[in-house]
Amino acid sequence: MLENKRTYFNSIAAKRIKQRKAKSYYWNDITKYCSYFIHEDYSVLEIGCGTGELLNNLKAKRKVGIDFSEVMIAHAKTQFPELELQVMAAEEIQLNEKFDVVILSNLIGYLDDIQKVFEGLKAVCHPQTKIIVTYYSFLWEPLLKFGERIGYKTKSPHQNWLSLSEINNLLFLSGFHVYRNSRRMILPVYIPLISEICNGFLAKFPVLRLLSINNFTFAKVVNTALSKELNTDYSVSVIIPACNESGNIENAILRMPALGTHTEIIFVEGHSTDGTWEKIEEVKNKYAATHCIKSSQVSERGKNAAVKKGFEMSSNDILMILDADLTVAPEDLRKFYHAIASGKGDFINGSRLVYPMEKEAMRFLNLLGNKSFSMLFTWLLDQRFKDTLCGTKVMFRKDYKRLVSNRKFFGDIDPFGDFDLLFGAHKLNLCIVEVPIRYHERTYGRTNISRFKHGFILLKMCFFAARKIKFR
User: Which CATH number is 439's domain given?
Assistant: First the structure.
């Protein structure tokens, strides 16, 4: 059956090459969206690369493509001689290399056994590899068949018409965790102005986006066999930004659990008036024999500056943020460590809105604002969020370095750091996972957050990010 399919695709390859050029508007949008999530430091494998346009347009350090059509690979090699291309079937991948991203673009409809192909992807995956699957929406089947009848679209063999839930289930059965689904393009042909309105604006909103032709599925491997490769012996840096928190500094040390092979604690203080800096230095000297403690001060205002300084000072594998008010218990950092070290996610975000809160932990307007931003982020990033403003966030140091190099895309506009990290993690295509924690009352001091002033700043940032993420 595989040979029959190869013969068929070779026979229509020339037509498909011409058609792909004619339908560049449609294909360019797929390329644009995939490219958004590819960092220049990533290695990429495209399975079913066809004529190579998508792979060629990605800004990755290493790009490899395979396709079972000799004619398409020959054409791609002529057009893009710098790409590494091989004739190889998706069912018979034989590559002695692991990639950061694996792309299957409009391929799964032609596969005889999708689950077998998905399971075979593990041979080219390391524990942090991301899978991107693109496919037509099954709602478009009648229109696509009509396009074939009138000669607008090249006739295709009978395809597997799959909904997003069916694709998600096949990935789950194959040992992958689906962490994001996206839809794009409700008008797949270019009509000046009308296409921009339909695809650049209308297709971004609920209900209307269900009419989109292209479905995108993002997944991360969670197979037990691969998890054995995952090094759970990571070292950890806990960054504690502190402003007017002198009464909490020693408790942060006393309650800090041992995390991984080595835990360093980094206090970064700025603009305190209650002796916080002096208390940090006192505690640092007092516990020097039992704890690795670093400290620094920042002249800039805002938590983001303190977090950046702490990340710069860090030397360990995993970076954690713990607010000095200790409303998130230091003991709960074990949950965050387990989530990232076991491969459950690449970016771990705390969620305070699951368990009941202590009476004075969060005021009503703050709670309302948090819920509103959570709904906004769920729409913006195509992933469910419960709590975007929890101060406790965890990521790998290597990913933070990539985030820093990407920061110019969004700009340095966040005084708090929460949105800067979440937007950056999304741009890097990291698997973001939320860990529910209990949110406690303060035992010392008062909040540094102004509900209205800072809420307005965060809202402006969301509108700015919408232009960069949703409406670009």
Answer: 3.90.550.10
